[in-house]
Design a protein that fits this description.
7-stranded parallel beta sheet, about 45% helix, alpha/beta, single chain, 7 strands
Length: about 250
């Protein structure tokens, strides 16, 4: 029996990258999983790869749609125990050159999407007597990354939201934490990072290895499981000590 047997999870941005890795890990541990994503192509691929998951088309920036999709899935699944706020949109540029529409899209998907998901999921988690919320942060909050001022700021806001909601929802038995991966090779990240860039990141990491998607999935399982029952309000870095490297 898996450590998430009988639990129901929703993962936003779940049809690709880290979200899909977390879905794989949750399914292996016995959870029911609903994957929310806006990409029809990714949803189709996820449906073929993970036939046991429920694949749900959703624009995470649309508050009404998020509530409708999550409510419908929870009714079908019989409850909700875990929300993973993973959806994000990336656009890197110097702040002075950052287009307004790109700023809006990053905020709408990466921050407001988490707010709308929390609003939709919280009543269901309370009805279940508690559960876990995992917000996907980033080590970009802790170190300076070239051309990532907006992205880093959004992830910093998610860290703050994590601490706030850990207190606000703790009395309902809901544990709210953030997971901050270091460099993880995913299709999305590889669209902006070259092979040389990945190698540079590996060499700078004290453990001399980059985190795999499976590494992130394993930590997400831990935070959602009973093993993490007394952990709340933290941002757990999975970065091989990259953010604490000295000179």
């Amino acid at each position: 029996m898996g450590v998430l047997e009988g639990k129901v999870a929703v993962i936003t941005g779940g049809a690709g990258g880290i979200g899909l890795e977390i879905a794989r890990a949750y399914l292996r541990e016995g959870a029911k999983v609903g994957l929310l994503d806006i990409s029809e192509a990714k949803l189709a691929d996820a449906r073929r790869e993970l036939p046991d998951a429920q694949v749900l088309a959703c624009d995470i920036s649309n508050r009404a749609q998020v509530r409708q999709v999550i409510d419908a899935y929870v009714q079908q699944a019989g409850g909700l125990d875990v929300l993973v706020n993973n959806a994000a949109y990336f656009f890197y540029a110097p702040l002075v050159d950052m287009p307004e529409d790109q700023v809006d899209k990053m905020i709408d998907v990466g921050f407001k999407g988490a707010l709308w998901s929390l609003q939709a999921a919280t009543p269901h988690l309370i009805a279940r007597g508690g559960g876990a919320v995992i917000n996907l942060s980033s080590v970009a909050v802790s170190v300076s990354i070239k051309n990532a001022a907006v992205y880093s700021s959004i992830k910093g806001a998610l860290d703050t939201l994590t601490r706030q909601q850990a207190v606000e929802l703790g009395g309902h038995g809901i544990r709210v934490n953030a997971l901050a991966p270091g460099p993880v090779v995913t299709p999305g990240a590889s669209s902006v990072i070259s092979a040389e860039g990945w190698e540079t990141r590996r060499q700078r990491t004290p453990l001399n290895r980059l985190a795999s998607g499976a590494d992130i999935g394993g930590v997400a399982v831990f935070l959602a499981s009973d093993a993490g029952a007394n952990i709340a309000g933290v941002t757990l870095k999975v970065d091989g000590a990259l953010t604490v490297v000295g000179y």
